[in-house]
Amino acid sequence: MAVHLAKGTRDFLPADMLARRQVVHTVQQVFERFGFEPLDTPVFERIETLTGKYGDEGEKLIYKILKRGEGGVRGEVDQALRYDLTVPLARVLAMNPDIRLPFRRYHIAKVWRADRPAKGRFREFFQCDVDIAGSSSPLADAECLAVLHTALNELGFKGFTIRLNDRRILADLAAAAGAKDSQSEKSFLVALDKLDKIGRAGVDGELAERGFAADAIETAWEALTPQADDAATLAYLGDKLGNRGKEGVAYLGQVRDAAIALGVDPARLTVDPTLARGLDYYTGPVFEATVDEPKVGSIAGGGRYDGLVGVFSKQDIPCVGVSLGLERIVTVMAELGMLPEAGPVAEVLVTVFSDDQLGDSLAAANALRAAGVRTEVYAGSPKLKNQFKHANARGYTWLVVVGPDEAAEGVVTLKNLRTGEQQRIAAAQAGARILESR
Amino acid sequence: MAVHLAKGTRDFLPADMLARRQVVHTVQQVFERFGFEPLDTPVFERIETLTGKYGDEGEKLIYKILKRGEGGVRGEVDQALRYDLTVPLARVLAMNPDIRLPFRRYHIAKVWRADRPAKGRFREFFQCDVDIAGSSSPLADAECLAVLHTALNELGFKGFTIRLNDRRILADLAAAAGAKDSQSEKSFLVALDKLDKIGRAGVDGELAERGFAADAIETAWEALTPQADDAATLAYLGDKLGNRGKEGVAYLGQVRDAAIALGVDPARLTVDPTLARGLDYYTGPVFEATVDEPKVGSIAGGGRYDGLVGVFSKQDIPCVGVSLGLERIVTVMAELGMLPEAGPVAEVLVTVFSDDQLGDSLAAANALRAAGVRTEVYAGSPKLKNQFKHANARGYTWLVVVGPDEAAEGVVTLKNLRTGEQQRIAAAQAGARILESR
Questions:
Q1: ipTM of this complex prediction, to 2 decimal places
Q2: CATH code at position B355
Q3: In total, how many domains does chain B have?
Q4: Cα–Cα distances in Å, from B267 out to A370, B258, B285?
């Protein structure tokens, strides 16, 4: 029988796991240094929890699960795999009114999208999310920028940019371009979102197709005239936009100032009024991080969503968060040679000299483990040559042999496979020796 | 809108997460001390990978997923959530012939079964599995017993028992009872598996219903006559059983001896020839761990399955492994007061005295984090009283205030909320002070 993975999914073999967990550990340590607490939710939700949150395109990508596994006689579908970690958080907040606000939570876990698999795009992938619920203060948005900035720094990224915008600025731009309702506003955002890919002429064409008038489009572009720096951009936008846009400009300015006070390098921040972000639920600032090289699109993104919890509950709770895309981060780190080297788990192989000596080898393994040494006992074919080969192929540093001579003396031979050096010592001492060489 | 979790699933809020991750960490440290390496597989597999592996009852509980999420026009199902971690491992071994054997892997992850939810039984739950692939040696089985024994010890369990049996012993017992083929052998095992619940008379009734003759059943019971200790049980069984059973007895004896040489307390082991274990794929030793109190059923189980990889590949690979059920382990630990107390993630709350002082508070937070202190900056309502209340309610040990006086002096007030003691020092020194008190 030929056997395959489900399309768009991957196994992580130990070498991958050991490298990736160092990346995750770094991210997690940064999240906790900012006071975020871990939360986990089920991988599947009732289907009505997920529908209506991700836009028409997103919704098509939700994985549906049959009712009670089987679907009953009518093949009913009542559950679905989570599409992101944000909607489940909003559900948790709605269902747990006792959670003390402001609430900082992180969630590092898999999400699923039935997307067309491509290079670097999978159907199962990890997100690393931090969110602050219950704060309307620009400080909360700034904390999200600071935690993102710190995480990217500590992962070793040198060249990256965090672009900032605010949905209220975008709404005003859409209004300037002639958008009359939320549908045409969305339409404007979808077109503007493609600016990086299709250029201004392309966006103009799309907008014309969508019924926007040329002179109104021109008014919007005028507001988008590039300025010398962020302060100038914000001042210029504040001048050009209406009340809602001014509100966005003022808020974004406060977010930016607070982020810088929290240690974010101003050179890493760029106010970019064309940044749209796809998801429906954002209401205030939106942000996105990209690395200068290689060109892989954004490696993190987020924003403020003050209306999502209210979809699930009478009591609305303002929220802001950021999500790091682990797959792209790992891809970029691998490409730039930034991934940590990960050795094997075990440090030592205890060989089995012969059936007669088995008990002595097991006692030695037991002593090493009791000392805290990560130890494999060889359980394969009995030839000593194979056992040496195994230890070398696995990349272990140490080898222990207990032959009849060693057994008679109550010692083991401890060999350092890197240096070739070997000595006869008691198993417990061998443990101490390995530990001190770590 | 009323909002609910999918049936049989749970959220893990931070307090739960923090306690559970300590349990998982202990288990993982033990797994690694035995040289097992981490592996991860997708949560869903092609449906044909999972079918035909778990028996008729098990198969019904597999969660099916619609093709490409949507199922297309015919609502096709082509994927399913994993039911355990063993079948995915067998698939990985079949698909990766370059994996060096013997291969020790662990996998701590969720599995899903569309079972009827009940106290302590969920549709989404964690398993902690270790397996050794590529060894036919009883040493591999013994390593699985030793890692289980060590994990339970290090979690703090005092009263537990690991029962051992071998499928070859069971096969011979079934033959003695008159089983003629693998179907009636399975039928015998299903009835015997209920001995704990329905007693000998109950099992006899079931066997009679399934067509076993009374005198043959009697012969099987005779072989099951309890003996004084494991050695006597093995000797007695060796005497009563045919060649296949004798093979099982001899192998199990070697496993037991090796486990004891690896440090397993013989008082924790019991050879129990009635132990059946439900899954179809076991071929040699089977084992199961139970705690004396409370009565929750088994908390871990495993065995040897030498034929499963061969289902996916021409090259068969002998395997043995053990799976710890995290939910029952956590349930028992909670009931016995063994769960570690977990404090909040953050150690200190940096308060925001006023909008004017915001920059100073953020600079203080930045300095604390740079020192490695887990720090929340208060982003909620501005009243200082609320901020103090928040720090106490969250259980933080430290509080930092930067008012106008502190700002003028370039210091912060660091208050220990446990002792009430407070001092004015530079933010960086406050960080050092918090670190040294950890």
A1: 0.94
A2: 3.40.50.800
A3: 2
A4: 20, 15, 19
